[in-house]
Write a structure and sequence with these properties.
single chain; mainly alpha; globular; Bacterioferritin-associated ferredoxin; iron-sulfur; BFD-like_2Fe2S-bd_dom_sf
Amino acid sequence: MYVCICHGVSDKKIKQLAIEHGVTDIRGIKKCTALGSQCGRCVRQAKEILEQVKPVELQKAS
């Protein structure tokens, strides 16, 4: 599903950045993509996706 329609950033891309590259916040996502740089409506949803990924990462690290 596209989270940022303006720049074509998907939920899969956000999850990939979090899991494979250790990106844990919106600032990190913005450094890797153009998320939120146009209309900004996607930022809230991207934060929710990152919050869902964090518990999964903590389980993997244990």
